[in-house]
C-alpha cells in the first residue's frame, strides 16, 4: 500500500541530482511542486531549493543547511541521506513516478474529504458533488505540466496546418460552419478552442440564431452538445423542426397542420432520429458540473464539434463569491474547456437594459452583463439586433399613452413576416469587426442569409474595423489553432 503512494528513494535521487547538478533545477522546478514530495523533510528541502533559486544563490549543502536552520527545520540525517544518494541523468522518469504517486495521494485525500462532507457535515448531495468536482479539477490541473515548443516543432505543425487548409481547396471556411454564408466569410467559422459569446436583449432571437447554426451542423452529420438552462429539450426540438420543415412554430405547438405538413414533419422526425444532438436541460448547472459532463460526452462521442450554453448568466457559481467573480470563473472556465477539448464553446449572454435608453440601441461590448471578464476571455462576440423589436415596442407604448389620454390611436407600424436583422461582430480576436445582414422569419423563428448574398451577389461589409487586426477587407482570415 505504502509503496503505491510514495517512493522515498526516488525523492532522494531527485533532490541529490539538484544538489550535484543545479543547472537542471530550472526545468525540474516547472514540473515538480513542493507537495509532490511525500516526506515532510523532503518538502522542506525542496522548498528551500526554490527559495535559493529565487535569490540566485548556490543550491548546495551549506546554503540549504543555513536556510533550514533559520526556519528551524534542519534534519542532518535526512540531508546526509540525500547527499549519499546517487544522482541520476534521466530525471524525467523519476519526476513522472513522483508525480504519479503524488496524484494518487491527492485522490486518496479526496475520498476522505468526500466522507467528511457527506457523513460528518451532512451536506446536501448537490453541494457534495460541487466540492468533489472542484477538488478533482484542481488535482488534475495541478498534475498537468507542459514544456515550451521550439521553432522546429512550431514550424512543422504550422506547415501541416497550411497543407490541411490547402487540401480543402482554399475554402473560406476554416472552423465550424456558422450556418450563414456571409458570417462564415467574415469569421472563417468558429475556430477550435474559441469561446464565442452571442449576446442580445430579450426577444431579439439569440436562441433562434444559434439553433440555426445547430440545425446546419446536425444536418451535415456533425455532433452538437447543447446545455439548455432556460427551456426544456422538447421546446428546442419544436424550434428545430420548424426551421427544417418551414411549418410555423405555433402550428407545430398545437398540431394544426395539413396532410403535406404532417408528411414533412414525419420526414424531419426521421432525420432527427439519426442526428448527433445531445441536450442537457437540467436547468441548474455550475462550471464544474458542465465541465465534467462535456468531457464525458466528448469521450463517448468524439464526433461532437461544438458545445452551446443557453445562457451564461443562468449558470450557477461555485461557492459564495460575489456574482461578478463567479461570472469571471465561469467565462474563464469555458475558455479553458474550449482549448482543452479543441472545439468552439458558444455561450449565449444577456445584455444590460441600459442600452434601451440610447437613441441608437445597437449593442456594444460594454452592454454585456458582467462584461469585464466575458469581454476579455471571448475570442468572438456577436450581437443579435433587430430594429423592428424596438419599433413594435415604441408603437405599443404610443398606443397605451393615447388610450390613457382618451385619444384615437392610428397605428403606423406594419408588422412583417420577415424582418431585417443584423449580426454585429463586436470582437474578433483573429479577424475584422463589422455588421452582417440577415433576415428573420418570425413565424418560423428562423434566420436566413439576406437575399443579396443568397443570390450570389457580393456583399459589401459595413463598418468593418480592420485597424486592430491589421488585415485587408475581404481577405479570409485564418485562425491558427494552438500549436
TrEMBL record:
<keyword id="KW-0378">Hydrolase</keyword>
<keyword id="KW-0347">Helicase</keyword>
<keyword id="KW-0238">DNA-binding</keyword>
<dbReference type="InterPro" id="IPR036185">
    <property type="entry name" value="DNA_heli_DnaB-like_N_sf"/>
</dbReference>
<comment type="similarity">
    <text>Belongs to the helicase family. DnaB subfamily.</text>
</comment>
<comment type="function">
    <text>The main replicative DNA helicase, it participates in initiation and elongation during chromosome replication. Travels ahead of the DNA replisome, separating dsDNA into templates for DNA synthesis. A processive ATP-dependent 5'-3' DNA helicase it has DNA-dependent ATPase activity.</text>
</comment>
<dbReference type="GO" id="GO:0016787">
    <property type="term" value="F:hydrolase activity"/>
</dbReference>
<dbReference type="InterPro" id="IPR027417">
    <property type="entry name" value="P-loop_NTPase"/>
</dbReference>
<keyword id="KW-0413">Isomerase</keyword>
<dbReference type="InterPro" id="IPR016136">
    <property type="entry name" value="DNA_helicase_N/primase_C"/>
</dbReference>
<dbReference type="Pfam" id="PF03796">
    <property type="entry name" value="DnaB_C"/>
</dbReference>
<dbReference type="GO" id="GO:0005524">
    <property type="term" value="F:ATP binding"/>
</dbReference>
<protein>
    <recommendedName>
        <fullName>Replicative DNA helicase</fullName>
        <ecNumber>5.6.2.3</ecNumber>
    </recommendedName>
</protein>
<dbReference type="GO" id="GO:0006269">
    <property type="term" value="P:DNA replication, synthesis of primer"/>
</dbReference>
<dbReference type="GO" id="GO:1990077">
    <property type="term" value="C:primosome complex"/>
</dbReference>
<keyword id="KW-0067">ATP-binding</keyword>
<dbReference type="InterPro" id="IPR007694">
    <property type="entry name" value="DNA_helicase_DnaB-like_C"/>
</dbReference>
<keyword id="KW-0639">Primosome</keyword>
<dbReference type="Pfam" id="PF00772">
    <property type="entry name" value="DnaB"/>
</dbReference>
<feature type="domain" description="SF4 helicase">
    <location>
        <begin position="169"/>
        <end position="454"/>
    </location>
</feature>
<dbReference type="InterPro" id="IPR007693">
    <property type="entry name" value="DNA_helicase_DnaB-like_N"/>
</dbReference>
<keyword id="KW-0235">DNA replication</keyword>
<dbReference type="InterPro" id="IPR007692">
    <property type="entry name" value="DNA_helicase_DnaB"/>
</dbReference>
<dbReference type="GO" id="GO:0003677">
    <property type="term" value="F:DNA binding"/>
</dbReference>
<dbReference type="GO" id="GO:0043139">
    <property type="term" value="F:5'-3' DNA helicase activity"/>
</dbReference>
<keyword id="KW-0547">Nucleotide-binding</keyword>
<dbReference type="GO" id="GO:0005829">
    <property type="term" value="C:cytosol"/>
</dbReference>
